[in-house]
Amino acid sequence: MSAVLAIGNGESRSQLDLKLFLPSFISVGCNAIARDHIVDHLICVDRRMVKEALETPLEKIYTRFLWLNNFSSQKVLAVPELPYQGDQRADEPFHWGSGPYAVLLAAQLANSEVWMIGFDLYDTDKKINNVYKGTDNYLKADARSVDPSYWIHQTAKVFECFPNIHFKIFNNENWALPEKWKKSNVEVLTYKYFRI
Known about the structure:
The chain has helices spanning 18-21, 47-53, 98-109, 149-161, and strands at 4-7, 26-30, 41-43, 61-63, 76-78, 113-117, 166-171, 186-190. The protein has 196 residues and is of the alpha/beta class.
């Protein structure tokens, strides 16, 4: 498989058995996925999540450049530099989240395709949509959902900066693609089409 798999922690990805698929991809995951799966690259822009990830066998953990001095492990690397200059608050590297950084790193690693799973963005019941909600270093399960506008903007910038990469977004049938993500190099498929 030549595609790179970018894995968000939205609840929709729970319908896939990642253990069956991970060996076929170069994988980039976010935060607490390290509790359940070994990914090739892990993005943790929160220092608490880096500390947790260092307790796992993962070899490449990426965090903000500002946090690097807090960790002596050679496993901890800086997240990629942004491939563009912007003038909005959402364009500042410090305001980028783990999900958009995972998509950016996946795009840099890919030859032609990035497959995205678990990038749900939206809540389904006005509550946080994350498979790890209510666990250590995460919001409570009944916490209000997070505004996805920064994630949408930042990920759209990745799509724009990598026009030769085909991004396949897998999600549920009723999932709505954000307007900013409607690009010629972006395709939406339901999970039933996730095949290696």
